[in-house]
Amino acid sequence: MKCRSCRGPAVIEVPRHHAAFCAEHFVAMVRGQVERAIRRYRMLERGDRVLVAVSGGKDSLALWDLLLGLGYDVSGLYLGLGIGDYSARSHDVVRRFADDRGAPLVEVDLARDHGYDVPTAGRVGSRSTCAVCGLSKRYVFNRAALDGGFDVVATGHNLDDEAATLLGNTLRWETASIARRSPALPAADGLVRKVKPLHRVSELETAAYAFLRGIEYVVEECPLVAGNTQLRYKEAMNAIERTSPGTKAQFFLGFLERGSALFAGEDRPVLGPCERCGQPTTGRFCAFCRARAQILGERLGSPRDPSDREVAEALADEVLPVELYDGDRPDEPAAVGSTGRRDRDAP
Ligand code: AMP
Ligand code: ZN
Ligand code: ZN
After folding, report:
1. What is the pLDDT at residue 266?
2. Mean pLDDT by 10 residues, the chain (347 residues)
3. Is 155 in the pocket of ligand 1 (CB under 6 A)?
4. Is the CB of 218 under 6 A from ligand 1?
5. What is the atom index within ligand 1 of the atom nearest the CA of 90?
6. Which atom of ligand 1 is nearest to the CA of 230?
7. Of 57, 188, 236, 288, which is the most buried if we count CB atoms within 10 A?
8. Domain 41-218+228-268, CATH class in plain words
């Protein structure tokens, strides 16, 4: 096998590109895919302060490395979820990456800063562990970016993540969620811009990139995620990909180019500030504050509120911004109401 770019010995084959690459040109190919994504969706401007959410896994660390390499002003954000050893190891890896590169790192801890951890939330609350974890992440990412004066949050979602989420949405015809599938969501009142610069890069490719770049990362999956619907959709996509290389990319990237416009057209619901935290929401309290109150056994609302039940009823129709922005957890209740939004650069 020869490298497509230099005809030297190849170290990696990429069947969907019908190509093989040497280490140097593989890294350049991935970088090119990310630059293309950034350009196509106008994800980042020079001078933007970028906050990249890093879990300690291959994707988000690869993204941090790529954005630093491309010369962006980028800080990391690590959120401690309190998932035992797994979280401790992830935190170590992220800290070491930041130290080695001299890159700034913002650290938030769910237990320290919000009073609960993910395992407790999964046991106590009414939502599944993955749902409450996803909700907490989206809330904290947005909040940390606003508090730190960042223009944009970047996450390490890769092509496999996005294809699996779209597959799940499509299997259930969640049209409002399908309409929101975009690698770049513009800022709105109280919500920072959110981008996924790795959406053209497969999971195998981000792993190879991290390996070739010598990035130390936590290999194991979150121990709480086993059997998660999203993982099963990924396996299903991979089964198809094995016999028909390129299907995953055709499905997701084809959707962005030709499908997503067909689902657009719903208007964004009106958002107001959450009465507890001030983050935008369609109800009185945002879903993060509601979930948190439930987990901690706290009452939401002022003393004039007659009962929790009335509060709950008042909130029944709520759509929260984090769900609006990235309601991609298959096990999370679908956002209610008309929630479509248009991107600045929709295909
Ligand atoms: P996941 O929801 O675990 O599939 O992760 C999706 C993206 O969210 C990752 O690529 C990261 O950008 C970000 N992320 C996940 N977990 C964390 C964490 N504990 N701290 C900061 N960012 C995270
Ligand atoms: Zn080469
Ligand atoms: Zn709130």
Report:
1. 60
2. 96 92 98 98 97 98 98 98 96 98 98 96 87 94 97 98 96 91 93 97 97 97 83 94 94 96 76 92 92 92 50 44 42 36 35
3. yes
4. no
5. 19
6. 4
7. 288
8. alpha beta
**Residue 60 Cβ contacting ligand 1 at under 6 Å:** yes
Task: Give the number of the atom of ligand 1 that is nearest the alpha carbon of residue 133.
Answer: 2
Q: How far is the CA of 290 from the centre of ligand 3 (A)?
A: 7
* All structural domains of the chain with their residue ranges: 41-218+228-268, 271-302, 306-347
Here the contacts of 97-105 (C-beta below 8 Å, separation 24 or greater) are 97/54, 97/61, 97/64, 97/215, 97/216, 101/68, 103/64, 103/68, 103/74, 103/75, 103/76, 104/75, 104/76, 105/75, 105/76, 105/77, 105/78
Ligand 1 contact via 78 beta carbon (within 6 Å):
yes
| Predicted local confidence at residue 271, as pLDDT | 86
